[in-house]
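Example protein
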Amino acid sequence: MELIQQNPDIAAYLAAGEAVDHDHPLVRATADRIAAAHPDAYAYAEAAYVFVRDAIPHSQDSGDLRVTWRASDVLEQGTGICYAKSVAYAALLRARGVPAALCYQRLADDDGSNPVVHGLVAVRLPGGDRWARQDVRGNVPPGVDAQFSLEEERLAWTVRPEFNEVDYPVLYDEPHPVVLRTLQAAPDRPHLWRTLPTEL
């Protein structure tokens, strides 16, 4: 699948925004801490990926009822769903000059019911000529094995067209408006679960 930048200017994928607030002191401090041990761009991108995937639990897995949507809030509260964790990873990448985009899949149950939009991040290392999608949701349930990879994708789930699942090719510099509105309007995760977007 060819990934398509919504904004043709690569600088948009380095900018700070409302959700991807990598100019926030906490985001900067977290990025600096990771970079101190992993100064190389590739090593940093992988270490930041593992940090967000493993050290920040998905709120469904942990039972946390809070809803986060800004990168700084995700890092401060240590929780978020896939959309929020993706925003945090994008912010950590941009804080170190690595272009990062938000992108999405449409997933469903094994019979095609209960569709939901799932959030991912695309990374483009300096000097690279292509985007590579990453999934920081967290490797739960058992059997899910998302890994950082710039070559062959190692996402949590591969879409199944027979169940009307979709890989959306567009790369966004901020969360898709439908996603962002849903997060901002949710007072808690049970409400969020009832209002998650089913398509873009």
